[in-house]
Every structure is written in structure tokens, then in C-alpha cells.
Here is the input.
Amino acid sequence: LVAKAAVSRASVLITGETGTGKELVAHAIHHNSSLAENPFVVVDCAALPGSLVESILFGHERGAFTGADKARVGLIKQADGGTLFLDEVAELPIDVQSRFLRVLQEKRFRPVGSKQEVKSDFRLLAATNRNLKRMVREGTFREDLLFRLQAMVVDLPPLRERTEDIRDLAFYYTARICDRYGIGIKGFSPEFFETLTTYNWPGNVRELINALEQSIAVAHDEPTLFPIHLPDHIRIQMAYALLDKKVPKKHYAKKISKNKEFIPKLRKLLEITEQQYLEDLMSITKGNVRDACRISGLSRSRFYDRLKKYNIARHI
Here is the structure.
């Protein structure tokens, strides 16, 4: 779909959660298009200061407003002959949307304070992590502008729905990070990859890259990456997930027999459950007491008391 968008001049709306790579796709479309040698101008709509939005987009003449000591060419004109990329287009103020719609239709606009119209013929790409159709219903986004934006739509799935990409992404970005650090490329333990593919990555590819960079920094001279090198929040979530798998909610509620004598006393049941929990916890955290205390909510002294009670070794 991205390849088809590259050979077209139609407007493209790129949708997806934060961190899925929307700007990367926009660059790919531009650099594989007939406009590749021409400007690629990025407009971060979320960062546009309210009082200067029109000046930044359309430009202004000298003296158009207080502080305008010289004329300025707007981003729309800078994209003339190339590609204009509106990142986070949902944040574009609704009063500016109507002016921008006319630019799309006429390819002409008037800079702030100017009496003359200027021309800018550009290809439009836009991206958002918001539901623009819902915003149209709520009256915060123009429906006619949405129609112009979505001549083609590229919807990027979150990383948790394409876990088969994680291995390739990990190899690619690890090589780039190690090259930037000037160190040899790290290897990966099977457990490291298992953790990467099991974690749900709410921050998507951007979070994966940050996690890899932190892991490489923590590993330092070690040639292989292990789960222990990953950020704490990832390891803690994985510990919870593995504990949920190991101890199903109805595990101890299941009756072994209709004979009441086979049902253990509550105190004994709690001890069995606690011992199993602690053994699983120490195994998952690889004996890291600090992580185990954080997950369990126990103080270090109380945690040691329970390990001693059930004769559980710190290093498993």
C-alpha cells in the first residue's frame, strides 16, 4: 500500500497509535516518489503556537503584526514542488482548517498582511493517532477537509499485532545503536527475544527502540543481551504475566473429589499458595530480591522471613 501511495500524487492519511512509525512511512512515500529530489516539509501541528499558526503555515509580510520585522516564507510555500507532511493533523485549529482546505483546492493562498496571493503546488501527506471521523461528529474537525486528506489511507497496526516484526526490528536497531556507541554488535539470548515478543509494547516501535538502547547501555561490555538488561517496568509486567499463567485463578478452587476430606484447611491452602508464589517469583526475577519485593509489595525484611519459612533459596 505504501508502494502504491509512492507512485501516486493523491493525498495520503497515515493513521496509527503513537510510536508505530507514521513519520517514517511518510518519508518512505516521499523518497520513493517522483518528488524525491524536492523538499519534504514537516509541520508538527501539535507544536504550532496558537497565535502564530497562520504566520508559520502561510508566511507573513514585514509589519503584518507586532514583532514581524521582516517578511517570512511559510511552510506551505517552502513545500512548493515537493511534499508537505502534516504530523498530528488532528491538532490543526479548526479556524485554520478552512483556510488550509482552500489551499488544497486552489493551490493558492495569501500570506498574513499581504495583498497578493502566492502559489504552492505540493503533494500532501498527513498523520494522526486520533479518530478523525469521531472528531467530525463532535464538530472539532471539518468533514470536507477529512475527505481531501483521505484519498488514500495507510493504517499502521500496533506492534503487539505484528510481533513477527520484532526480531527484525531488534536486529536492525541494535546494529544501529551499537554502531553509534562504537561497540561490537550484541547477541540475544532466547529469553530476551521471548520477553520482547510477549510484552505488549504500548509505546510501539518507539518504545522498543528505547528499550533496546537502555538494554545495550546496561549490558555495557557483556556480549549478549538477557531479560535482566531490559527496563524494570518491562520485566515487572512480564513477571506478572508469567505468574498469571503459572497460577490460574481457579487453580486451587478446583475440587479434587466430592469427598470433603480431600479439601485442605484454609491455612494450609494459603501456605501452599504462598510458597508456590514465592518460588515462581524468585524464578521469574532470577533471584533479584529488589524486583521481587517491588512486585510482591513486601518489605525486604518480611520477604526474607518468608523465604526462610519455606526454605527457598535466593538464587534459583
Q: What stands out?
A: Residues 249-257 have pLDDT under 50 and may be disordered. The longest strand covers residues 123-128. The first helix runs from residue 2 to 6.
